Amino acid sequence: MGVLRTYWSSSEQELYVGSSNAEISVKSDDSEPEKTSLSKFLKSRCPSLFRTFSPAWWLNSGHLQTAYCVFGDFSKIDKVRYSRTLLRYRDGGTVGLDFTPPFGEREVPDDAPIVVALHGLTGGSHESYVRAVLAQAVRPKEEGGLGYRGVVVNFRGCAGVPFTSGQFYSAGYTDDLRRACVYIQYRFPKARLFGVGFSLGANVMIRYIAEEGRNSRLRAGCALGCPWDIHNNAIRINASFFLRNVYSKSMGSNIVQLMKKHESELAQLPESELTRITPELFALKSPTLYDVDNCLTRRVGGNSPPFPFDSAEEYYTWGSSHHVLGDVRVPLLAINAADDPIVGHVPYDVGNNGHVALALTPGGGHLGWFEAGERRWEVRRWVVRPVIEWLRAVGEDLIPEQDDFVPIEKDDEGWIHEVDNKRDDLSMKVLGDMEIIEGIEGEGGGLQGL
What we know:
α3 (128-138) links the parallel β7 and β8 (149-154). It is built from 12 helices and 18 strands. It has helices at residues 38-45, 62-71, 128-138, 175-187, 200-212, 230-239, 241-261, 263-267, 273-282, 289-300, 312-319, 384-396; strands at residues 5-10, 13-17, 24-26, 34-36, 80-89, 94-100, 114-118, 149-154, 193-198, 218-224, 332-337, 356-361, 370-372, 379-381, 398-399, 408-410, 416-418, 428-439. It folds into 2 domains: 5-229 and 321-439, Rossmann fold (3-Layer(aba) Sandwich), CATH 3.40.50; 230-319, no CATH class. The radius of gyration is 21 Å and the shape is globular. It is an alpha/beta fold and 450 residues long. α3 (128-138) packs across α12, α9 (273-282) packs antiparallel against α10 (289-300) and α10 (289-300) crosses α11. It is 30% helix and 21% strand.
């Protein structure tokens, strides 16, 4: 096993990389591709990552950064419009894919890279942190953007997606993303897909990339605020009176409120473990995230097997992503903040995998990273710059090791699936493209989407 190597540090900001000899292929001035390490690739193409993040003076703690992420007014910036496509899966569940720019609004090349974004716990495409990245990524090149296409995978029941089955989502369940990637590739066969995950969505993305290895349809990933070791982070939060009562209870209540929004839909579902759980879930008083996970997520947060789990602890151990980093075979950049009040354990060893780099900033809170803007009291998200540089680099310079994926087809009944895939449950049907969605704030709640 290789030895951990710290590639770069400045003050308290550091970049951790594995010591394995993994290399990636990138374009060069010569006709032949150049082989390089991930650390050198980042140094040459993501300069913002090596400039220390300095928080705005009035947001100088992880708690303040996180609070501003939740309660700040972002309705007038990073406006993103979407076209929504609903997918129905074999288990009856529904996932919403929000594409930007909306179909027909402006022409985007068929081979333009696609940023596949995954939101936080109970969030969606409206979240400010999602829009901050996508607004820059999909802006036309002549206007200073990347000219890419974006799509947000909204989990079951989130962001107005209907709840239509007895299965929930979870931090470790990857099949909904797996199906979404197949559909996106089916709709845009010439495009390369790159993942950007936030918090819980980052955990899902990393587990998917690790499970797929070289066959990952996401050719590279960027993970922001990933919870990594969910078990130990849960222990840490529950052991603190402040963290438990401020953060854990807010996140737990958000899941309960999300389910209550779908109470009428749940009442129409056939009897299942979920419908039997629902009265118990709604009866919880000021529940922590652990309470909700122990009641709901560990039982119906994914397929059987491995669900249900005997305890929330068992689910947390299974669903964590830090222990799968060794299986990642596409370039992965992760960024966490050392003062994140929700994530206290990060994998400095990055799985001893040269395909993985972890940048740890001294500040930034959970999905914050707000620095001072040009005007008094104005702030901007520092993290957007290195993420956009990363997306530009992997989209324009990276030469993926594999582009010849398993073909995708639609059968006579309208089910879309990979050819010869032995798992029939991974197929999907399109319910249709919906009206344009204005991706702005409005799905409020304490710590919504984190």
